[in-house]
Amino acid sequence: MEMEKITTDRSLVGETSEVAVAYADLVSKELRRVARKARFSRPVVSGGFRVRRSDKIFRYYLVALFVVLVALPTFAAGAYFAFFSADQFTAEARFSVASGETSALDALAGMSSFIQTGQAKNTIIVSEYIESRPMIDALEKRLNLKRIFSPNNGDFVARLNENSSAEKFLKYWKNQVSITVNRTSGLASLTVSTFSPQDSLRIIHEILQISEQIVNELTQKSDIDAYSLSKSELGRAKAELENATSRLRDARNSAGVLDVKLSAEVASRLISQLRLELANVEVQISSLRASNAASAPQIVPLENQAASIRQQITAYQDSVASAPTRDSNSLATRATEIQEREVEAEIARSMYSGAVLEYERARIALEKKRSYLLTYVTPRLPEEALYPRRILFTAIVSLVGSLVWCIFGGVGWMIRDHMAS
What we know:
The protein is an alpha+beta fold and 421 residues long. The protein folds into three domains: 2-81 and 405-420, no CATH class; 89-220 and 370-385, Bacterial polysaccharide co-polymerase-like (2-Layer Sandwich), CATH 3.30.1890; 231-367, Helix Hairpins (Orthogonal Bundle). Helix content is 70%, strand content 7%. The protein has helices at residues 2-39, 53-84, 104-111, 119-130, 133-142, 145-149, 166-176, 197-219, 221-255, 260-290, 299-320, 331-367, 390-420, and strands spanning 89-99, 177-181, 187-194, 371-377. It is rod-shaped.
């Protein structure tokens, strides 16, 4: 009995010690929780904790940060969009560059989206040119762009400063003009925003005209070179023809013969007539001698006439052609130089005719358009201002300010907790 009692007492003591240890653990955990709660930035309303001064300063910091990052920017944006911002009107056009001559590469480009040739490539070139400074310079010759983008409307943020440099103007131009290109199909969408619907429509029309001119200049580079070459060849052939004609004229003037062939025909005709006349005279003389009238007075004049005719025939024959030892000033001798000059003139004339033909071909090819700007969505006069979106932009400013305020507030919170720990 005594042994059972001793065992029971020991078990009661063990259970009591375990309860005490558990209770001590609970007290320790509760004390640690209260200590951590006392270090928090939130003051404890009940429980006797006194709000620390640093907590008040932190609250003032959050309020001031909210005013600077959220309230003031939102108020300024709302005031600007409500009283100062000017309406901007947007004109839109959609186009593609079509080639007048279809090549095998263009067909391959239509079958594969990885080959950027033909229409798509030309459209990309046009889009890059529209957003470049040369486009601004080309438009400046037709329109006063700086005056269009810097009206006296009181919008000091959206308008352009008239004294802006070319680089700033180009940056402003890229903000007002937007173009997107589908690299697969070559379709482009162009938008232009100004402070007047008429200005937007006029600028987008001028852009389309200049772009079509530029793409034709790029695609007709070989035609321009061919035209220049044919024009220079035509000038050279014309000068050679003029020189050859001058040398032929000088040769004819020196020889005293306008046409060698015609002169030879005339001389041959005269010689034939003289020979016929000589034959008639000789027939008369033969008739008189046959009639035993050798002493007749008609024979002597007839013989003299025959001799004169023979001299004329010999003279004409020598003028047409003669041996070099007798007369080197014959028509045949003079005709040699004239014929050489005529051959030169004929060759020059043939070359000039070929040069004229090539020049006309090059001119027609140059005047013919190789590419066309097909506008499948023609620009219209804007009726309603799309920009600025006042409520949306004000909400964006407020949202961004709130996000920044949350970031700075979270950073300040972590720094405060770290210093407190």
